[in-house]
Design goal:
Blueprint lengths: L7 H10 L7 H4 L1 H14 L9 H15 L2 H13 L4 H15 L1 H17 L17 H13 L1 H10 L5 H16 L6 H15 L3 H13 L4 H15 L1 H14 L4 H8 L1
Helix pairs in contact: 1-3, 4-5, 4-6, 4-11, 4-13, 5-7, 6-7, 6-10, 6-11, 8-9, 8-10, 11-12, 11-13, 12-14, 13-14
Length: 265
């Protein structure tokens, strides 16, 4: 029987990201690994546009948190660190996931991250990245929320929320935006790409995905960048969630014919 191995390009990409690592699945499931590696580490990478490798890896890590892929996350975290994603950036990815995936999902990933960083000789805790405190988180949170979502949208959410649910709006402003988006370590456009990846991978959050497509555009990310992120997620989150997120991109950021032709090229 002919040995089943990934193609040359996929093998080179795999070796760059996982130097010296031989997957046990390549022995037990060679056909699947051939398909997957050729797809994830060659074909997909030819269609991510101008999305740089580090950003692609960061959004993939965020998506793996959202789907609960702890073992795969550990492997890809090593690849991300080897590719130049910094320990601070890694921690910020995990922290950014908390308001979207919830601490119940993120808890194990935080410990796994700490384990991987410690094994690599990184001393914890890292330097703090928080820029707000109890007295400033709400004000600064509303400010960054309006920058991302838009003044009228934020004001409308407060105006339209019944008195019994006003606290959810305050939670969003003070906790989601005030505690998280105001942190240093990652800029706001990168945080929005991570949020897009998290929401796309979660599934069942179609309205939030659509809202954060618009938010990404508000902070300077482009349709092409969002498509690059989704392309990189396909092998890890599957087609249904990817295509649902693609529909949100098409709805919020439709392509004109010229742009569409460039994307397909």
């Amino acid at each position: 029987m002919t040995a089943r191995t990934p193609n040359t390009a996929a093998t080179a990409a795999h070796e760059r990201l996982f130097p010296g690592h031989v997957s046990t699945l390549a022995v037990t499931d060679p056909e699947l690994i051939e398909y997957f590696d050729n797809f994830a580490f060659d074909e997909v990478l030819r269609h991510t546009g101008d999305l740089d490798e580090r950003t692609r890896l960061m959004t993939q890590l965020a998506a793996m948190i959202a789907v609960g892929a702890l073992a795969e996350y550990r492997v890809m975290l090593g690849a991300a660190l080897s590719a130049g994603v910094t320990p601070v950036q890694v921690k910020e990815i995990v922290y950014q996931a908390v308001p979207y995936a919830g601490m119940a999902r993120v808890f194990d990933f935080l410990h796994a991250t700490n384990d991987v960083l410690t094994d690599r000789g990184v001393e914890l805790p890292l330097e703090g990245q928080s820029t707000t405190g109890p007295d400033s988180r709400m004000e600064q949170g509303v400010a960054v929320q309006k920058r991302i979502v838009g003044d009228s949208a934020v004001e409308g959410m407060y105006a339209n929320a019944p008195a019994a649910t006003q606290h959810f709006q305050r939670f969003l402003s003070g906790n989601c935006f005030g505690d998280h988006y105001t942190r240093t370590g990652l800029d706001v456009p990168t945080r929005e790409l991570l949020t897009f990846a998290l929401l796309a991978a979660l599934g069942g959050a179609d309205s939030q995905v659509k809202g954060h497509v618009a938010a990404n555009l508000n902070v300077g990310n482009t349709r092409a960048t969002l498509l690059g992120v989704l392309t990189g997620l396909v092998p890890f989150i599957g087609y249904p969630r990817t295509l649902n997120a693609l529909a949100a991109v098409d709805a919020a950021a439709p392509a004109d014919d010229a742009a569409s032709s460039k994307e397909e090229a």
